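Practice problem 4.
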C-alpha cells in the first residue's frame, strides 16, 4: 500500500520546486486491520456468554416464580458461570494490554512464594476434567515445592489443559505429567489433538495469534491465552515450551524453578 502526494511550489508564476512524496502505508494498514480484527474477536467473545446471561435472566424475571427450585438453581448456576467466563476474558484483555509485544512486563504482579506443585496441578485436573475423566494425571507421590505464584500457576496450567481439551476430539484424553529434576519442575500437558503446523510453533505464543484452520475458527478464543501464559511463566522465573506433530497431538511444557533448600 503506497500513498502518493504531489506538491508544487511556485514563485512569481514560475515552478521552483516539484515534490512527490511516496509513503509506504503497509504497516499502518496492517495495524489498522489488526485493530478491527481484534474488535471483531473481542465483541464476539463477549457476546457469546452474554446471550445466555440475558436469556436466563429474562426467564427468571418472567417465569422464575413458577419454576421448580432445581430449575431455578440450574439457571442461576449457568448465569454465574457465564458471568465468571466474561470476567476472566476482561481480566485477560487488561493483562494483555499491560504487556507489550517486545519485552516482558517488569511490573507484572506476581506474588511469589513456596508452593507444592503437585497440589496445584491436581486441583486444576480435578476442576477441569474430573467429572468425565478426560484429564488423567501422572504425579509424584511426594510434594514438589516450587517458587511460584499459586494463583498464576493455576491460571497457566488451567490454560494449557483448557486448550488441550478444546483442540482435541472429545473422546481423547489429556494427560498431565509432573516431574522434578536439575533444580526445575516440569508440568507436561499432552493431547492427541490436531497438532500445530511447524511454522506456527512460535507464533501461537504471540498476542492474538490463532492458527487459521476450520477447527480453531469454529472454537471460541481470543489468541491471548498462550501469550499471557508464557509471560506469566517468565515472571515466575520459568518458561513454556511446545512440541507438536500435525495430526497427532501437542505437548506443552511449563517449567518452574524448584524451591530448593541449602541441601538442594
Ligand atoms: P485461543 O485458544 O483463545 O485461540 P491461545 O493463545 O490459548 O488462544 O492459543 C493460540 C492458538 O494456538 C489457538 O487459537 C490454536 O490455534 C492453537 N493451539 C493452542 N493450544 C493448542 C493445542 N493444544 N492443540 C492445537 N492447537 C492449539
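Answer key:
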Amino acid at each position: 500500500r503506497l500513498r502518493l502526494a504531489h506538491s508544487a511550489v511556485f514563485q512569481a508564476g514560475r515552478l521552483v520546486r516539484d515534490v512527490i512524496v511516496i509513503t509506504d502505508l503497509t504497516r499502518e494498514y496492517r495495524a489498522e486491520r489488526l485493530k478491527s480484527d481484534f474488535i471483531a474477536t473481542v465483541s464476539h467473545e463477549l457476546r457469546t456468554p452474554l446471550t445466555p446471561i440475558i436469556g436466563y435472566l429474562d426467564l427468571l424475571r418472567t417465569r422464575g416464580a413458577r419454576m421448580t427450585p432445581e430449575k431455578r438453581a440450574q439457571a442461576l448456576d449457568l448465569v454465574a458461570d457465564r458471568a465468571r467466563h466474561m470476567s476472566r476474558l476482561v481480566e485477560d484483555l487488561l493483562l494483555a494490554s499491560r504487556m507489550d509485544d517486545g519485552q516482558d512486563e517488569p511490573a507484572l504482579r506476581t506474588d511469589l512464594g513456596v508452593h507444592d506443585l503437585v497440589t496445584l496441578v491436581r486441583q486444576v485436573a480435578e476442576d477441569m476434567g474430573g467429572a468425565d475423566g478426560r484429564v488423567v494425571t501422572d504425579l509424584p507421590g511426594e510434594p514438589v515445592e516450587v517458587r511460584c505464584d499459586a494463583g498464576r500457576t493455576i491460571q497457566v496450567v488451567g490454560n494449557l489443559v483448557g486448550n488441550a481439551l478444546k483442540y482435541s476430539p472429545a473422546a481423547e484424553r489429556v494427560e498431565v505429567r509432573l516431574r522434578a529434576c536439575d533444580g526445575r519442575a516440569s508440568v507436561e500437558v499432552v493431547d492427541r489433538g490436531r497438532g500445530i503446523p511447524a511454522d506456527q510453533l512460535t507464533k501461537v505464543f504471540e498476542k492474538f495469534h490463532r492458527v487459521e484452520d476450520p477447527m480453531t475458527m469454529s472454537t471460541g478464543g481470543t489468541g491471548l491465552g498462550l501469550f499471557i501464559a508464557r509471560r506469566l511463566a517468565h515472571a515466575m522465573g520459568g518458561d513454556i515450551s511446545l512440541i507438536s506433530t500435525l495430526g497427532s497431538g501437542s505437548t506443552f511444557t511449563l517449567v518452574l524453578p524448584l524451591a530448593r533448600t541449602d541441601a538442594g
